[in-house]
Amino acid sequence: xxxxxxxxxxxxAFKKLKGKGVLTEADISEAMREVKLAxxxxxxxxxxxxxxxxxxxxxxxxxxxxxxxTPAQQIIKIVNQxxxxxxxxxGSKLTxxxxxxxxxxxxxxxxxxxxxxxxxxxxxxxxxxKKPMLCACDIYRPAAIDQLEVVGKAVNTPVFVQxxxxxxxxxxxxxxxxxxxxxxxxxxxxxxxxxxxDEALMExxxxxxxxxxxxxxxxxxxxxxxxxxxxxxxxxNEKLGVDGIVMTKMDGDARGGAALxxxxxxxxxxxxxxxxxxxDALEPFHPERMASRILGMGDMLSLIEKAEAAFDxxxxxxxxxxxxxxxFTLEDFLDQMGQVKNMGGVGKILEMIPGLTPSQMKGVxxxxxxxxxxxxxxxxYSMTKEERQDPSILNASRRKRIAAGxxxxxxxxxxxxxxxxxxxxxxxxFSNPKAMKRNKMFRGxx
Length: 446
Known about the structure:
The chain has 446 residues and is α/β, with parallel strands linked by helices. It has 22 helices and 8 strands.
């Protein structure tokens, strides 16, 4: 989880403050020292840390905190506000061309996941009503064009290729003309990377920029490289000029220093973050939501959005009718589990729940939870249609047959039926139409 270490340390520091009714200047100074150490250990830029702690401390020593009946809460509020400001204030959206056709140029060093991110971005744009085309302009890296074609196929997006051309700028221009001609409204240009920033790379990128005049130049950087990612962003911005940053591998970076430093150092916002290997694992970066997660306040807005995305209106209406008749089958139970998986699985949901710290999440075996999902699917698919529709007929001999069919012990079948019965009781409370309407976005969590 991103910011895992930082989140634990900050919440630990604030926990000490909450235990005190009145705070002294010494208490605040000690808390700020812990905040400073936590940020430095998270690999946040030293100058950024120094300015951040100074601003927070100055505000914490004001009357609003010192004379408050809940001083610790006021300090957390100030830290939250400053974290949001540090990461850019508000989320920065993609800029689309008023003409209706937008060109996005993806740049970055080798190994940052740039080509995969092109596919993730295409998938994101399609989900938001756009019609993208990909363009292969990396003519140097072996199999780079083949990789983009595989990515394009995976997200059902066409890829413009000119294998014989050795001029990336002309390829990009031809792709733009082709995309406009065929009715696409976004062109995503995948450019070549290098192991480091050099004149040849920047000259080539500048030529592509001049040829297609992109509305967005997005720099893809690897969060795992820490401050090196920020230095790379600074270098690209100085030589090429970028509009935003895509921070990949955020799910594997427990420190998060690059994300906290990038905006302050480069002046450019993080627009997206990669949070997994799948093509739907690209999320818009929201500073206010990220600050809330870091401080253990959860991220209910993102949770609601995921619930809405997984929410199937037609299935929900059918379920509502069944609940009115007190009908909730194992097939319905399986469908609800599928909606949880569509929301990113148990791990993603837990990250967004308020009050659940990363250290507490360590006590939850997420891999085991995912395995249990797979086992329950196998058990239910091993049943006959009649058994799935009416689990009450599952006597001992039927359960033994199902266990042999799915390769699980009978105890697993018994446990599944128990969980099904518990879930059935839970959903009964939503059989009231008014309750169903109030909670429709959360049915996928049952």
